[in-house]
Amino acid sequence: MRGRDAGDGRRVLRRGRLCGPRGRRADHPRHAFPDRLGIQAVHGAGGPEAGRSGARRARRSGRTLAARSGRCPAGRATVRQLLNQTAGVRDHTSLMALAGIERMAAVAPDAVLAMMRGLDSNNFAPGSQARYSNGHYLMLAQLVERVSGRPLAAFAHEALFAPLDMRDTGFDASAPIAHGYRPLRSGGFRIADDQPSLPGSGGLVTTARDLVRFDTAFRSGEGVWSPAVKAMFLEPGRLSNGETAALPEFGTPYGAGVGLERRDGVLWLSHDGGSEGFRAQYLRRADAPVGAIVLCNRSDVNPDAIAERLSNRTAPEPQASAARPPREAPQPASSAAIAALVGHWRSPETRIDYAIRANNGGVQVTIRSPLAAEPVVEDWGGLEVAADGGLITGPLRLEATADTLMVSFGNRVRRLRFERVAD
């Protein structure tokens, strides 16, 4: 579907008032974007009583997070580890990609939750590493619902959005919103409005004006922003060995849902998000009313760069790095390596099923899973051999033996086990 040319949606915030490109007052259309800050704020600001009291009760009774919330892929992880991205939970959106799902909104929420409940392995042991995963926020959303006894949307409205007077914010997929746009190779744009079917890691509908209210309350310490809650946001996460939990993807420490970076001795908070035709960035100084809120309804716009420019942040100092030996260019996969992939494989945890056959230097995969009513056929072409012998193409990584196939999707799903089964 081709939409009209996407317009210039830039707006400027001056002294808490939303202005047009040259400082004129402007009414801003609603935007829908996967604002992961939403669920993070629900725990940190909207529901400290629900979240913290639930954790206290679990500690007093000696129960783990898994015992409290039923079968849970977080295992023995703590709420703090989920918030700090150190729990090792697999990313449900990446698992959906491995299941051949292109449109997250087309999958029933119960099917995704059932898949996550079936997991009995993590990307890593809780507390041992830090890696970003949307699965952490999906688990937090489920925990909020279980502790509060209410749907996340209702709880967030009562505990967070209403107290902050965020009148145009919520998890309402039917709300009137600005279209999102993705550019077409042939020119022009297509409308790209899909929202995730499960709230938690995304799906929040909001406006720049409401986010100003959120930020103003943070700065003043009003309402839900108690000193204890603010301190939780500003405290970097820690690994089990005491080291600061820095996310390699961002290169900075991570607090309770926000990146924490010091430049010239100044602490900055940030969080970005993106899905379909929407991009967003929230950036602010921790100690002063300086920052930027950028909402974009074009996928080819970089909100991070816009926020940096509007905030007048100094560029980060270049980091000296040890010289690395030159790496050999990956070589095309051999016919023998491709032949090792051929066959019928199934993941016992996710019930994703791959029927793989060789196809012109790569493989063609017929994917079946509980997430889709019909099989999905994908071509995994251009397979190359990594330095350690694994086969890679894009974010996919495949490691095959006679009876097992380990599948990774970037760092968000690592070594998901498939077993060879009879046709």
3D architecture notes:
This protein is an alpha+beta fold and 423 residues long. It folds into 2 domains: 26-88 and 123-311, DD-peptidase/beta-lactamase superfamily (Beta-lactamase), CATH 3.40.710.10; 332-420, Lipocalin. It is built from 12 helices and 22 strands. The chain has a 10-stranded antiparallel β-sheet with strand order 13-18-19-20-21-22-14-15-16-17. It has a 4-stranded antiparallel β-sheet with strand order 9-10-11-12, sandwiched between helices. Strands 1-2 form a two-stranded antiparallel ribbon. The longest helix is centred in the middle third of the chain and has 15 residues, at 134-148. The protein is globular. InterPro entries: AmpC-like, Beta-lactam-related, Beta-lactam/transpept-like. Residues 1-11 have a biased composition (Basic and acidic residues). Residues 12-23 have a biased composition (Basic residues). Residues 74-309 form the Beta-lactamase-related domain.
Provide a concise account of the structure shown.
Helix content is 26%, strand content 23%. It is of the alpha+beta class and 423 residues long.
Number of spatially distinct domains: 2
Largest β-sheet summary: 10 strands, antiparallel
Task: Indicate the overall shape.
Answer: globular
Quaternary: single chain
CATH topology of the largest domain: Beta-lactamase
- Mean pLDDT, as a whole number? 83
CATH architecture grouping of the largest domain: 3-Layer(aba) Sandwich
Strand order of the largest sheet: 13-18-19-20-21-22-14-15-16-17
**What structural class is derived from the secondary structure elements?**
alpha+beta
**SS elements, strand count:** 22
- Uncertain stretches: 1-5, 8-16, 18-64, 66-70
So what's the CATH class of the largest domain? Alpha Beta
**Helix proportion:** 25-40%
Tally of helical runs: 12
Radius of gyration: 22 Å
